[in-house]
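Hey team,

Filing this mostly as a record. A colleague (T.K.) asked me to run one chain through the structure pipeline before their review meeting, and I want the input and output archived in the tracker in case anyone asks later how it was produced. No errors, nothing strange. Just documentation.

Input sequence:
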Amino acid sequence: MKGMKFLFCLLTAILATFFFINGKAKADTPNNSVLRYIRDGVKNKGWKPAAEQNWLNKSTMLPKNNYRYGKARPEGIVIHETANPRSTITSEITYMYKNWRTAFVHNFVDGNSLIGVADTDYQCWGAGAIANPRFIQIEQVEVHSKDEFAREQLNAAKFVADQLNHYHLGAASQRKTIWTHDDVSKYLGGSNHTDPINYWNNSAKDWFSGIYTINDFIWLVNQIKNNTLTK
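Output structure:
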């Protein structure tokens, strides 16, 4: 009887280990065509996130208002997109600097570039009076190819992961540390914009025959944050 009990316990331990490892592998495998494409690009094509370019020397006219809990104390990041299929990252930045009194964000990103245009230690004016005192904000420029869209998500996710680490905000989590502008409109108010939902949906449908959501973006951010994207 003791031998049978030992064998039963041993078998139980082996099965538990198998299901734990197998379940972890499945959890780490993205069930999304955009994410798989990004991971393949990083693993097999040598893709790397764009290094951030610092254009803050052009931002001297921008106000420096503290977040609601003080300087350098953001609570998360808001993801935007420009809703302009004809613009470029440089034209968007030029327009922003000329019209900053209406709106400005901290960073712009596309498939090739990540450009810092306002100091993330201070709030910007991109998502309304409730969100602005709380969040860093990044604007995705509309791109026009499969590779560009995938690499834009990689670049944006790396920026977000870096901010979470720099400001000690913890893991990426929807409507806690990561918000879309649509989330802000629905759950905080002060705005009625719905970006980047349509841009993500249309791009994923056109180039990947799938979908791409904030949950997919959050998965990507956390993989980058934890250095597990290609594992």
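Quick notes for T.K.: The chain is about 45% helix and 10% strand. The radius of gyration is 21 Å.
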